Amino acid sequence: MHKTHPPSAPEETIIRLFREHRTALTRLCYACLHDASLADDAVQETYLKACRHLHRRRPDASEKAWLTAIAVNTCRDMRRSAWFRLHDRHITPDMLPEPAANASQEDREVTLAVMNLPGRLRETVLMHYFQGLTTQEIARTLGISHQAVSDRLRRARERLRPILERSMHDE
Amino acid sequence: MNEKCEAEQIRQAMDRTLSGLPEDPELERRILAANAGISKRSAPRMKLLLIPALALCLLAGAFAAERSGLYDMLLASPQSGVLPEAAQLVDTPVTQHAVQSKHAALQVTQILRSGSDVLLLIEAAPRMDGILLAPDRLLGNTAGSSACRALMGFDAEAQDALLTHAENAGKQLVALDVHLHTPARSGNSATLEYRILDGKLLENGGVHLLLCIRDEAFAAGAEVPLQLRFGTTPVTRSEPAPDYALQSLYAYDSMHRSPAWLTLSLPAPAAEADEISANLPPLIGDAAAMPVNVSEAGVLINGVSLIRTPLYTRFEVEYTYLFSQEEMAGREVFFLLSDAEGNWHTGGLRGGSVSRGSWPTFTRTGYASALPALPEDIWLTVMAFDSAEPLAHVRIPVVAAESGPST
Predict the structure, then answer these.
(1) What is the ipTM of this complex?
(2) Cα distance from A116 to chain B (closest Cα, Å)?
(3) Which of A19-23, B240-244, B247-251, B336-340 is least confident?
């Protein structure tokens, strides 16, 4: 028995998905991978996968959650490559891109703190706080329990809180 | 500060800080092109364009290979890592395929098949004076450079020798790997072996190996002069066809910025694969290792099985995490297996290898060159994805299996 080709995704859908989510996904991937070029690749791969599997998207999953899940998994795969592991990926302020908007020193510190969280915590924080996914959506995406998501967020908050509070006071 | 406030603070801080991230203006167009090509066979126009390109690549690759003495090496050991018995199994060697980028010429010199298993031998040669190629025996999908002195597959002495050689020659050292099983060759070349051991790929109609060499990083003066990206794409089709060349690569052939492509096509009629599999001789040996508690790495090794065939050696490591998934966050492990001398590192047990099971017990499968005899023991190195240092390194005695090997 021969398989059939996956259908092409409607072009207008892809264009819409791209224009609505591309920027956020690029920032998400950059925060995961600490490298603009790799982030570009990850976004590209995310949309390729989305094109191939659009017809299989669960109707109850929001587009943002679905694309975020693909992007996070793509970044995770890239992080697992030996090439990635070879390099020290700890990011420092001078490695951040020059911001186009008016970013304060506190903004940069918060961003760095998120980016330098341990992998699992960082993923969860980015999905929840940056992409706005619910804990249920994150649990489904990561294949872990709702409680585990909550635990991760709690631990991440504990780590980030001093920086967030300092940042708040400075403002 | 409540959670909502924190969320908003994080989102705004990241948005502002990362607002200057460059975005490729061509990405949308490429994705749309890729999407349009997903359900189509490659257009004849594409093939016509690629044929002269491939011919040029072949000519250039042949020239580069001749200049660097690759043909001599080719003749010397075309089937390294394969036992003589495998000669009965292998498929007819394919026509040479070659591809080149600005920096390197790669040539697939032989493709060996045994049922669903494929072994590719690839020769790589630099195309720029400033590059010295060397294989990296440990890392996968990667390349190194003079700025990156961690050639993990070599001991310190060998690393120093390579680096000194590169420096004396005024070259950058570029480590190429792909599941290497052959030692570094002298001179300016390297032999790569890439194994595809997934029956599903052939069942789906063929194997396409994608080599992408990105020149961009080098051109931008980054530390990474060369990056190889290997990938396999299972092919789906709606009707039988004798050849599936130059299609089903999705948009990869237009997605990367400065690509050099090599598309290999292995027609795989089911009957032929079945026939080859049916004619496989019995496995040479089968062995298992006893459970080992590697608590310092947070895992219990339930067992290591080793199955030797003329074409390759297969290892399976079953392991159980000793802590909860939360406690082990970021500490996912993978393994390297070797003999006492550090030979036959098993690439397939590294990151991205085949892994099955569910928390806390998993099995990873890896492959190495064919072993002529059963080793007395094996060394298991436990690595974690978030650490460059091994978590543990233990010797495991090998015990021959009482019953015959299973297929």
Answers:
(1) 0.86
(2) 12
(3) B247-251
